[in-house]
Amino acid sequence: MGIKFDGTNVKNGSKVVANMKRTDELRDGTSSGGKILGNIKRREEIRDGSSSGGKVLCNVKDGKNIRDGSSSGGRTLIKISDAAKQIGTSATGPSTALVWWFFAK
Hints:
By secondary structure, the chain is α+β, with helices and mostly antiparallel strands. Helices cover 16% and strands 37% of the residues. It has helices at residues 80-86, 94-103; strands at 3-5, 9-12, 15-19, 25-28, 36-42, 45-48, 56-59, 65-68, 76-79. The chain has a 9-stranded antiparallel sheet with strand order 1-2-3-4-5-6-7-8-9.
């Protein structure tokens, strides 16, 4: 069936596999206390885990592409609009990049 992101929950079919009840953290499962997979502590950078000092996985600094690492000149992984289609959402911001990185990459 595929991954779908409704802005709060990430579903695989009818099962919720992750959530973004807090707008800057992607958590495993349905609980707001679940393990933090990744975060958006700085508006444009997707980081591993819960720390603002965590490893930068990717970024959306230009607003059009998801790029590898922290550099705005990094290798383009995918257009943000294409990533949104892959995860079944119309959103094209950092939350789309965060969900795409963990569930559709």
